[in-house]
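Appendix C reproduces, verbatim, an entry submitted by the partner laboratory led by Prof. M.T., so that reviewers can inspect both the input and the predicted structure.
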Amino acid sequence: MHKISIPDHITKRVLKRRGKLHIYDRLAGRSTALIVVDLQNIFMAPGMPLEVPVAREIVPNVNRLAAAVRGAGGTVAWVQMTGEGMRAWSCYYDRLGPALREEVAANIARGTEGHALYDDLDVRPHDLMIEKTRYSVFIQGASELGDELKRRGIDTVVVVGTLTNVCCESTARDAMMLNYRTILVSDANAALSDEEHNMSLANVLTTFGDVQSTDEVIAALGAQAAPARKVAAAR
């Protein structure tokens, strides 16, 4: 698991602007979606070309969050990076050497072992299954997630997955720009190093939303539900 370390000057700046560290300390379950980004074999299975070893360590927290969001009446969306072919996104594949380029293309296509979600994830039949073709699931033309969330009345997104500093941060940035209340989960995202992971946490906390731990997100879901339970008990 990553060692979380957000610089003190970032925390102080956020506190000065907001008056508190966490702006989303109460989450309405029915309007909240957990977006699970790219926890596929190509990024998680040992020996795969784009393996992120820490991604395997976040699986228990991702499953806990999925259970909590479902229990609160929210939506869980499993997002899979899906290759369109080298020509459709040539500027991405041009960054890779010839051997890696072929290996990635062969493992990111729909129906391949690399494209499949990692086995230890707790995927349920009523969860959303979303394919995306770019780093951000919200960039125009990349996926159908935005339309699905609108239909469900979602205004809050909790982003987990890998890589923290690539697809997860890109998704969190675009979510905020589309006016979603956005949370990046500190111990349910994974990068290739602590430094890269923490830089993304700092970026999101400073400008694009909130950064919370798994326990804090689950507590925020419970905090919103508690008043409703008290009202129901009083009737």
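The chain has one domain: 8-234. Additional entries are available on request from the coordinating office.
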